[in-house]
């Protein structure tokens, strides 16, 4: 089973096992650039039903049920006008690992669950390679809960609204480790525009919770040569899970 998982990742040939007790080191190397982390495109102007601004103090006290209800009817930005449904998140609500992606794609918008297309299949294989699985010890969500048109990057204002919801999800789950999948997730969680290549293989902090950055599975599908680096990141995640109390 493990061999099959590694074959799906394209990692079986010539990979070398490293000691899990070795310290994490960052080695500078040329990177294949991802798409721009912070989008500059203008948001699509769409008519939405106005809502009063989010009360972050109220959301910070919400239960899972109340939070999911308010997300499902959210009209705080233009993305609401074109969605089929919101994509709240899925997984173990007491997870050790909280994965954060960018935003829903067309299939996610249709099914209401994050990472269900080809990138989702690759993500499942990545998790399985370090003995994790969707729904067991893992929670998955995105920076934004609605699909951006043409799968563009979320606009800053769209992300700002949804980060209020995501922050509450993180507080409810209380993960031991956050994993930012790709540049958009990293930029919004860490509030910088540093490339994934420079952020990966380092331990960051998000409001007191350890955070690591790795490539988005969709990016790996476009740049399969980067799977080797992703495997290094997965091994780092495995070590951190084992060592974090």
Automatic annotation (TrEMBL):
UniProt feature coiled coil, ranges: none
Domain Uracil-DNA glycosylase-like: 88-235
Enzyme class label: hydrolase
The protein's name: Type-4 uracil-DNA glycosylase
Reactions listed under catalytic activity: Hydrolyzes single-stranded DNA or mismatched double-stranded DNA and polynucleotides, releasing free uracil
The family this protein is said to belong to: Belongs to the uracil-DNA glycosylase (UDG) superfamily. Type 4 (UDGa) family.
NCBIfam families listed in its UniProt record: UDG_fam4 (TIGR00758)
Keyword list, A-Z: 4Fe-4S, DNA damage, DNA repair, Hydrolase, Iron, Iron-sulfur, Metal-binding
Metal-binding recorded as keyword: yes
Organism of this sequence: Candidatus Doriopsillibacter californiensis
Enzyme Commission number: 3.2.2.27
Pfam families in alphabetical order: UDG (PF03167)
